[in-house]
Write a structure and sequence with these properties.
The protein is 42% helix and 17% strand. The protein has 353 residues and is α/β, with parallel strands linked by helices. Strand 1, helix 1 and strand 2 form a beta-alpha-beta unit. It binds nicotinamide-adenine-dinucleotide (NAD) and 2'deoxy-thymidine-5'-diphospho-alpha-D-glucose.
Length: 353
């Protein structure tokens, strides 16, 4: 099939990235999809087993901070689009090791911006740099209000500060070098292939294995949850139909206090595991709060809905059922991830090639 586009997706072996890669590889056989991922602890090629043999897919193990590699990839594959997801993504890790976040999220993003700018040399027609960012750049809300695209940036954790810095660099490259970009800020994702250091998969795994369920503080913090495949659909929409230089907020209209969400998960798991009602909730354990814990995130997704026609496709109840079913059907994936075995998959797969 004749190739019409060549798209570099960074971080495609991670949670959201693997859903974006799968969507683009299967929906657009006319595109070449190059997945660049360093395979950190969060990158897992088992996430992409089902599509890894596709004719329009290439995996490259490498780092977004590798200037030489990026130059080569843009030239060899004639890259005309970038969807940039590679990042250090876990807030708790950013509290213990902020420099790793500066290095990948800030320096890595600027290195990638330089590569795109140099490869495209001011020719913007048909080119697009898509930066995937987070609602955390806006800081924390109290009980009322929503983040809009005009909310001033007020990041409060090393993670969100590094993402905010990367957003500023993307816009600065748009202004200074006329790099054609789009940027989205999304709320909390959930779904399959989510690394079990994050709230929902961690709780599912701990309920499954009868371990304590660590709720930070009083469990009163609020997050706005979006099914990851709906985020991938939004990325597809913005990549194809978003306006150059614009920002779009993406969210699920779906706010939950952590404690209520954990109790809901316990109830779902009791039913699925044939446990007496209330048994899993006995595992709930309140633990020391996260330092600087943002109280509430809530997205006003009106702009992407009005201007591009995107909206979430399923309810939270349906998404959570599907998510729990996926984890219960893929306990080997969970066991590999928690034991570190998944990291052998790359050696097994790629040492033969
Ligand atoms: P993740 O941690 O699951 O995956 C990150 C991926 O990036 C991994 O595959 C990792 O190997 C790769 N990576 C890390 N450093 C790299 C480097 N230096 N070079 C190349 N690859 C590298 O993250 P995620 O949750 O899928 O998030 C993806 C993006 O979406 C991030 O930019 C994050 O800030 C953003 N985001 C996440 C959420 C969420 O709820 N998870 C919400 C909004 C935005
Ligand atoms: O809002 C988007 C962001 O959502 C993304 O940019 C981040 O990459 C992503 O990790 C996520 O950040 P959060 O900090 O909101 O997600 P996390 O799953 O770590 O925590 C969700 C909430 O649950 C938060 O209030 C902290 C709390 N929590 C988390 C863990 C891991 C607990 O109470 N116990 C836990 O064990």
């Amino acid at each position: 099939m004749a190739q019409t586009r060549s798209i570099l997706i960074t971080g495609g072996a991670g949670f959201i990235g693997s859903h974006v890669v799968r969507r683009f590889v299967t929906k657009y056989p006319q595109y070449r999809i190059v997945n660049l991922d360093a395979l950190t602890y969060a990158g897992n090629l088992e996430n992409l087993r089902d599509i890894e043999a596709s004719a329009n897919y290439t995996f490259v193990k490498g780092d977004i901070r590798d200037v030489g590699l990026l130059g080569k990839l843009f030239t060899v594959h004639a890259i005309d689009g970038v969807i940039h997801l590679a990042a250090e993504s876990h807030v708790d890790r950013s509290i213990t090791d902020p420099m790793a976040f500066v290095s990948t999220n800030v320096i890595g993003t600027v290195t990638l911006l330089n590569a795109a700018r140099d490869a495209w040399k001011g020719v913007s027609t048909g080119k697009r740099f898509y930066h995937v960012s987070t609602d955390e750049v806006y800081g924390s809300l109290q009980d009322d209000g929503f983040f809009t695209e005009r909310t001033p940036y007020a990041p409060q954790s090393p993670y969100s500060a590094s993402k905010a810095a990367s957003d500023h660099f993307v816009r600065a490259y748009g202004n200074t070098y006329k790099l054609p970009f789009v940027l989205t800020n999304c709320s909390n994702n959930y779904g399959s292939h989510h690394f079990p250091e994050k709230l929902i998969p961690l709780m599912i795994n701990n309920i499954r294995t009868n371990k304590p369920l660590p709720v930070y503080g009083k469990g009163e913090n609020v997050r706005d949850w979006l099914w990851v495949e709906d985020h991938a659909a939004a990325i597809d929409t913005v990549f194809h139909n978003g306006v150059d230089g614009e920002t779009y907020n993406i969210g699920g209209h779906n706010e939950w206090r952590n404690i209520d969400l954990v109790k809901l998960l316990c109830a779902i798991m009791d039913r699925k595991l044939d446990r007496p009602i209330g048994e899993s909730a006995e595992l709930i354990t309140y633990v020391t709060d996260r330092a600087g814990h943002d109280l509430r995130y809530a997205i006003d997704a009106g702009k992407i809905e009005r201007e591009l026609g995107w909206r979430p496709s399923i309810t939270f109840e349906e998404g959570l059922e599907r998510t729990v079913d996926w984890y219960l059907a893929n306990t080997a994936w969970l066991d590999h991830v928690t034991s570190g075995t998944y990291r052998h998959y790359y050696e097994e797969q790629y040492s033969k090639r």
